[in-house]
Amino acid sequence: MISGDVICLQGDLGAGKTTFVQGLAHGWGSQDMVSSPTFILVNIYRRADGAQLFHFDTYRLESIAEAEELDLDSMLAQGALIIEWPEHLGDLLPRERLWIHFEHVDEGRRRIRFRAANGRPAQLLERIPRVTAGAA
Ligand SMILES: Nc1ncnc2c1ncn2[C@@H]1O[C@H](COP(=O)(O)OP(=O)(O)OP(=O)(O)O)[C@@H](O)[C@H]1O
Ligand SMILES: [Mg+2]
Predict the structure, then answer these.
(1) Which ligand is nearest to the CA of 104?
(2) pLDDT tens digit string along 30-46?
(3) Ligand 2 centroid to 3 CA: how many Å?
(4) Which of 41, 59, 65, 113 has the fewest CB within 10 Å, making it most exposed?
(5) Could you tell me what percent of the chain has a pLDDT over 70?
């Protein structure tokens, strides 16, 4: 994951979005612990080389005006964005994105579907298995 990358995680409460971010951030090399940014909207994770990862949870976002204040563009310039509840950002969501959909199958199982247009999102999708395995 590099600056400007956007990964959207859609799924019901408890579908497994934050858990997926834990694997992703770990594989990416985060030095910080991943937690759910439900109340503070965004967590920032850092890697030894200075790269940053912005982890959003917009579940509690009150309005699009509040979303505009987040200034996604300046964050995109500084790192990759991973967004839980991306549908709450409406038109503010960057068009070029990897979309991941989570479904609760039963107690111990989740169905995860990936959708990416050609270009950078497709490249990112190809790298996902390696990132989550800690090899990227
Ligand atoms: N792939 C998975 N397989 C089995 N259990 C999982 C999986 N992913 C997450 N879980 C379990 O589901 C529960 C909820 O996970 P998690 O917090 O990641 O969901 P979430 O989608 O981020 O929820 P929220 O919408 O509240 O942020 C946790 O107990 C977690 O251990
Ligand atoms: Mg979560």
Answers:
(1) 1
(2) 999 999 988 889 999 99
(3) 22
(4) 65
(5) 95
